[in-house]
Design brief:
Distance between the termini: 155 Å
Largest sheet: 5 strands, parallel
Mean pLDDT: 88
CATH class: Alpha Beta
CATH topology: Rossmann fold
Order of helices and strands: HHEHEHEHHEHHHEHHH
Structural class: alpha/beta
Low-confidence stretches: 1-15, 56-61
Shape: elongated
Number of helices: 12
Radius of gyration: 40 Å
């Protein structure tokens, strides 16, 4: 009896572990894997979307390159899309710009001609930049200056900024142009710069203008101030009262020297895109200004200048020793300079 009780007691103390269901365990593992997978995917998606948005922003920031309008292939090298460092061209950023340089000699009407160009709403000619010697001291400084001008970063009162369609400067032959002509020609051809040559046919008139201007630099006839160009007939009359005396001994050599320099410049720059103008032709024929605008590929407009011509009328009334000048030039290559070449 005791053994039986003891046996029952032992059996009653035996606790069997319940049998685990393998299907439930698989489901638990599967759910865990799914949760982990969803979490990992969500993290990856967030990172991908961040990278995508970043790439999208970068794409939006990158500027589309400007496309040149449909033109002849030969014209494309002369069309530029400068990106100034000093300002934004805003809506005109993709408007093409032409580069030019007015190449001339002192007292040949270049100042008057430049004011005509600057009266055009799309043309900016920045003046006689290389009259400052340090800017033409060597080729490197010349190139650096030209780069600033043609990148629209040379700001003057003539600058049209955003919607400039043609930008340039006035450059005298004796301001480093002839001395460094090889490097400058190379620059013009590489950068697509067009040359506008402006000369006077009558070099005797130019000589008279130079002497009169040189005299006024010291005399300062206009209320103690010197003016190379005037904007009133009254001022012009005051300056025209001075009649220079020409050195007839040096007259022909001086005329020949200028003539040769002009011919050399045309020879040096014959490989550039160029237009040759003469002051007298512009005075007599206003359509010449239309030719200039066509050359620069800008819309045609009526151009005007506030400058007033100083020396008018016959040459005989402008020179103190006119009789000696006549005798010196008659029978020479320069006799035609004695004749009246235009009227104003």
């Amino acid at each position: 009896m005791a053994d039986g009780l003891c046996f029952l007691s032992k059996d009653s103390l035996i606790i069997k572990n319940p049998k685990r269901n393998p299907l439930v365990m698989r489901m638990v593992v599967l759910i865990f894997v799914m949760v982990c997978g969803v979490y990992i995917c969500s993290v990856c998606l967030r990172q991908y979307s961040a990278h995508s948005s970043e790439r999208l922003l970068k794409v939006q920031v990158v500027e589309r390159p400007c496309e040149a309008p449909i033109v002849e292939p030969s014209e494309k090298p002369y069309m530029h899309f400068p990106k100034p460092k000093t300002f934004s061209r805003s809506e005109c950023a993709c408007n093409p710009v032409r580069y030019f340089a007015i190449l001339s000699t002192q007292r040949s009407g270049s100042g008057w001609f430049e004011t005509l160009l600057n009266s055009h709403i799309n043309i900016s000619s920045n003046g006689e930049i290389f009259s400052v010697k340090v800017r033409r001291s060597n080729v490197s400084t010349i190139v650096k200056t030209l780069d600033n001008i043609y990148n629209l970063d040379w700001l003057t009162s003539a600058s049209k900024n955003e919607c400039t369609a043609a930008v340039g400067l006035k450059w005298m032959l004796n301001q480093g142009l002839m001395q460094h002509h090889e490097a400058i020609v190379k620059y013009f051809n590489t950068k697509g710069v067009s040359a506008i040559f402006l000369f006077r046919r009558n070099l005797l008139r130019r000589m008279i203008s130079i002497l009169a201007n040189s005299y006024d630099q010291n005399a300062k006839l206009l209320n103690g101030t010197h003016k190379s160009h005037v904007h009133s007939t009254h001022e012009a009359e005051i300056l025209a009262r001075y009649k220079p005396t020409l050195n007839t001994t040096l007259l022909i050599p001086n005329l020949r020297q200028v003539d040769e320099m002009v011919m050399k410049s045309l020879e040096y720059f014959k490989s550039t895109r160029r237009l040759i103008l003469y002051y007298e032709d512009i005075i007599k024929n206003e359509t010449k200004l239309m030719d200039v605008q066509d050359f620069l590929k800008v819309p045609r407009r009526n151009l005007n200048s506030r400058q007033v011509k100083i020396h008018r009328g016959s040459l005989s009334s402008q020179v103190e020793n006119w009789g000696d000048v006549e005798k010196t030039l008659k029978g020479t290559h320069y006799e035609s300079y004695l004749q009246e070449d235009y009227k104003i």
